[in-house]
Design goal:
Blueprint (H helix, E strand, L loop, with lengths): L1 H23 L6 E4 L5 H7 L5 E5 L2 E3 L2 E3 L4 E5 L7 E3 L7 E3 L5 E3 L2 E3 L7 E5 L5 E3 L2 E3 L3 E5 L7 E3 L2 E3 L4 E6 L5 E3 L2 E3 L3 E6 L5 E3 L2 E3 L3 E6 L11 E2 L8 E2 L3 E2 L24 E2 L7 E2 L15 E8 L4 E6 L6 E8 L5 E5 L4 E4 L7 E10 L9 E6 L10 E8 L4 E6 L6 E8 L2 E7 L4 E4 L7 E10 L9 E6 L11 E8 L4 E6 L6 E8 L2 E7 L4 E4 L7 E10 L4 E11 L11 E8 L4 E6 L6 E8 L2 E6 L4 E4 L7 E10 L9 E6 L11 E8 L4 E6 L6 E8 L2 E7 L4 E4 L7 E10 L7 E8 L18 E4 L21 H7 L20 H30 L1
Parallel strand pairs: 1-2, 2-5, 3-6, 4-7, 5-8, 6-9, 7-10, 8-11, 9-12, 10-13, 11-14, 12-15, 13-16, 14-17, 15-18, 16-19, 17-20, 18-21, 19-22, 21-25
Antiparallel strand pairs: 23-24, 26-27, 28-29, 29-32, 30-31, 30-33, 33-34, 35-36, 36-39, 37-38, 37-40, 40-41, 42-43, 43-46, 44-45, 44-47, 47-48, 49-50, 50-53, 51-52, 51-54, 54-55, 56-57, 57-60, 58-59, 58-61, 61-62, 62-63
Helix pairs in contact: 1-4
Protein name: Fibronectin type-III domain-containing protein
Pfam families: fn3, NosD
Organism: Methanochimaera problematica
Length: 837
């Protein structure tokens, strides 16, 4: 009887805890520990999606079905990974749910016909670090499954195949040891599977097909240690092989761990391992060849060499006699330059090759070379001008006798003109003025960048231009417009003439080439006089400053400008709209007059954006534009645009703590707390539905006078904001005046908070309400329609006429819920007590 009572107590407590957890506890993924003596399947059945079941070391005789998206992971708690013993019955594990994870388990003894260590009927699963042995089949990826991953597992000593792919596709099988099975892997109509970096070494065949479809058996070579210790990851290792060919029967001449030929795995040639793995025995890399110096200077020597053809080569180690430190040169560079050496001195370089295992070449290759003597660099010899023209001078020279000589720098008035490399012995100085003397300065530089401190200079003069360049003739105004003047002329008859320079107000404004004889000045103002001056210039840049002038007047303008276009309200807020537009192209556009909402704006003709402030929310505005030119002409057809301000979505709350604080036989005084809202401006007051005006923000009290003795009065309050928007919820409070003298009557009040009434259906009667507006609103019908026949106040209603759940409603519901659970707990305890008795 005691055990029965205990069981009932536990059951009752469990029911209570489950009910409480259903209400109060969130659902989340858990980690569940399973130890020997417990059932893995029971824990899977009780698990939820996302849970991890951690199986401790031990032997579990079960046939497990994974039908949830969980992680089933073995944990070595002292005696190795846990063993799932199929007990010669069904498969050790059958995975039926997508995205399951199976790791670190040993699956044995599912040895009955057509049983598996692991059978998957799901997609997107991961099987990692599993040992599968002594089963009929090792692992099977079942029909129609796809996108599973099998990695880092040992599959051996199974009666049939280690792996069976049964009409399954797009799986990845990598870094697994599949050995000592009858077959390594059997593929029955499987396709698009990626199988690489595995060891196959089985009793009959490593790979077998029933219905051949294309699969991929290697990846692009990756310099990374493969599963048998070689330096390159690519294909698979085949111990038993296919058709008598194994990894070891194929050659690896360059000892890179990859067979020199491909291995065809099926008769149809749909399954080919193009890069089978070969056993690899690390060898020292070969040394470099043809080490030699290719250049030497007084302070530097440069060597080159040829690297061995070794994909596992990592870097070149340089031992240089002129340095105490060693230097590593990455493969592929194949040269080394030693700088800051002493002139006329021998230096020796020694080179080792080093592979990725850190093995050095057995031979260090040496080369000894000597820097050149350091000659004293001299300047140029016989620098002289050999010819000249009106605008150019040509210099020549002889170079210094110095093997280190590199180049010469040419200067004029301390500005670098050019750098002339060794072998070029001439320089042509151009862009000069006629009849002008010029000097150049030269400085020689050697191959080490050392400058000769002695300058070599020379002077020469350009030829004199004896021809006087003429001016333009017949300069006159051809025609005028409102905004432009056209001039024409005749060029001077002179072969050296190049162009005409046009100036206005002593500023150059244009250059007109020979033969054009026309110039238009545009962008002018109407009815204004403009003068231009002309001078001529020749091919030598010599300007004839005998200016020829001409004056023109633009036409008087009586044509108004075009209007603006593409008026857009680019952005808006509750109290503003920002506008953009495109101005007309009239060059004399001066300004734009803009009007919106009774306000006028004037912007200059180069402005195309305006932000209009101080608007009312949720209101459509029309904006007008009138363009004006510099002559005062106005476009008589205004252009219009429309825009709407955003709604004021901020819900203005009602007053708080509305209560009666005092009364007489003819007056009642109420006070309250204003809403904490920066847009709040005033409160509309109603007494028994009759408007009593408004109370400004901050006053927080109102006294109703002229009342009858011993009479109930209901105050209604509506808050409004600075946009004139009225809060739809009325806050009410009811109080009674005192009885007339010699009578006693208690004061009644509904208390702080008041009663809330819906005001949405009277919104149309109040279009605008400012802080000083005293517009009366008929309140009688509102109060009557909202006063129920009973004395109980009506609940506020939502837009669909359903009661609105307030914060008080939720608090009451929560208290009720706690009360129910308390009663339930008392009942359970009472039942237990009665049973014990």
């Amino acid at each position: 009887m005691k055990y029965k009572n205990d069981a009932l107590i536990k059951y009752g407590f469990l029911v209570l805890m489950l009910l409480l957890s259903t209400v109060f506890l969130p659902v989340c993924a858990e980690e569940i520990d399973v130890t020997p003596g417990m059932s893995i399947q029971d824990n899977i059945n009780n698990a939820t999606e996302g849970d991890t079941i951690l199986v401790h070391s031990g032997i579990y005789q079960e046939n497990i079905v994974v039908d949830k998206k969980i992680s089933l992971i073995g944990y070595d708690s002292g005696s190795g990974y846990p063993v799932i013993d199929g007990f010669n019955n069904k498969s050790c594990i059958h995975v039926k749910e997508n995205e399951a994870i199976i790791e670190k388990l040993v699956l044995i003894n599912s040895s009955s016909s057509n049983c598996y260590g692991l059978l998957s009927s799901a997609d997107d699963c991961t099987f990692r670090e599993i040992e599968v042995r002594d089963n009929y089949f090792g692992i099977c990826l079942g029909p129609g499954t796809k996108n599973n991953i099998l990695i880092n597992s040992n599959i051996y000593d199974n009666a049939q195949s280690g792996i069976k792919i049964d009409r399954s596709s797009s799986n990845q099988i990598t870094r697994n040891n599949i050995s000592d099975n009858f077959y390594g892997i059997i593929i029955f109509k499987g396709s698009s599977n990626l199988i690489y970096d595995n060891i196959f070494n089985n009793k009959y065949h490593d790979v077998s097909f029933t219905g051949s479809y294309e699969n991929k058996w290697n990846i692009t070579p990756l310099i990374k240690e493969n599963i048998i210790g070689g330096p390159i990851t690519a294909g698979n290792y085949y111990g038993k092989g296919v058709g008598g060919q194994t990894s070891e029967s194929m050659h690896d001449v360059n000892n890179d761990g990859i067979c020199d030929s491909k291995l065809t795995l099926d008769h149809e040639s749909l399954n080919i391992d193009y890069m089978p793995l070969h056993s690899y025995e690390p060898k020292p890399p070969l040394p470099v060849e043809n080490l030699k110096n290719i250049t030497y200077e007084s302070k530097s020597i440069e060597w080159t060499w040829e690297e061995p053809n070794d994909p596992y080569l990592d870097y070149i180690l340089i031992n240089f006699s002129g340095s105490d430190s060693k230097e590593n040169i990455p493969t592929g560079i194949q040269y080394y330059k030693a700088d800051n050496l002493n002139p006329d001195t021998e230096y020796t370089i020694g080179i080792f090759t080093v592979n990725k295992n850190g093995d050095f070449s057995e031979t260090e290759v040496f080369n000894t070379s000597k820097t050149s003597p350091d000659y004293l660099l001299t300047g140029l010899i016989n620098l002289t001008s050999v010819s000249s023209g009106y605008t150019w001078i040509n210099w020549t020279w002889e170079e210094p006798v110095d093997p280190d000589y590199s180049h010469v720098m040419i200067f004029s008035e301390d500005s670098l003109l050019d750098i002339i490399l060794k072998g070029n012995k001439t320089y042509n100085m151009t862009g000069l003025m006629p009849s002008t003397e010029y000097s150049i300065k030269t400085q020689t530089v050697d191959k080490n960048g050392i400058l000769n401190e002695t300058w070599t200079n020379a002077n020469a003069k350009t030829l004199t231009d004896l021809t006087l360049l003429g001016t333009v003739s017949n300069l006159s105004v051809q025609d005028t417009g409102y905004y432009h003047i056209n001039w024409t002329w005749e060029d001077p008859v002179d072969d050296e003439f190049v162009e005409v320079i046009i100036t206005h107000n002593n500023q150059e404004i244009a250059r007109v080439g020979k033969g054009i004889e026309f110039f238009q000045k545009s962008g002018l103002l109407p009815n204004v006089s403009y003068e231009i001056s002309t001078s001529t210039i020749d091919i030598f840049g010599v300007e004839n400053k005998s200016f020829i002038n001409s004056t023109g007047i633009t036409k008087a303008d009586n044509i108004p400008p075009m209007g603006v276009s593409e008026i857009l309200n680019e952005s808006a807020g509750q109290d503003y709209i920002e506008w953009t537009w495109i101005n007309p192209t009239d060059p004399d556009l001066k300004e734009i007059n803009i009007r919106i909402g009774g306000k006028n704006y004037t912007v200059s003709g180069d402005v195309n954006r305006l932000k209009t402030d101080g608007l009312i929310p949720d209101t459509e505005y029309v904006i007008s534009f009138v363009t004006v030119d510099t002559s005062g002409n106005q476009n008589q057809t205004p252009q219009y645009g429309k825009g709407i301000t955003y709604s004021d979505k901020t819900v203005l709350t009602g007053v708080e703590n509305l209560r009666n604080i005092s009364c007489t036989d003819n007056s009642i005084c109420w006070n309250w707390t204003d809403p904490n809202d920066p847009e709040f401006t005033q409160i509309l007051i109603y007494i028994n539905g009759e408007s009593r005006g408004s109370v400004a923000k901050g006053i927080c009290n109102y006294t109703a006078t002229g009342l009858l003795p011993d009479t109930e009065y209901t105050i209604g309050t509506c808050t409004t904001d600075k946009y004139g928007l009225i809060n739809e919820t009325i806050i009410n409070d009811t109080a009674r005046t005192k009885p007339a003298e010699n009578t006693i009557s208690p004061i009644k009040s509904s208390g702080g908070g008041g009663r809330r009434s819906n005001l949405s259906y009277i919104q149309s009667t109040v279009e605008e309400k400012t802080s000083t507006d005293q517009t009366e609103i008929s309140y009688d019908s509102i109060v009557e329609s909202q006063e129920p026949e009973s004395s109980q106040p009506e609940l506020p209603k939502s837009s669909n006429n359903q009661p609105v759940q307030t914060e008080e409603d939720f608090t009451f519901a929560y208290i009720n819920l706690l009360l129910i659970f308390t009663i339930l707990f008392i009942v359970v305890v009472l039942i237990i007590y009665l049973i014990k008795r």
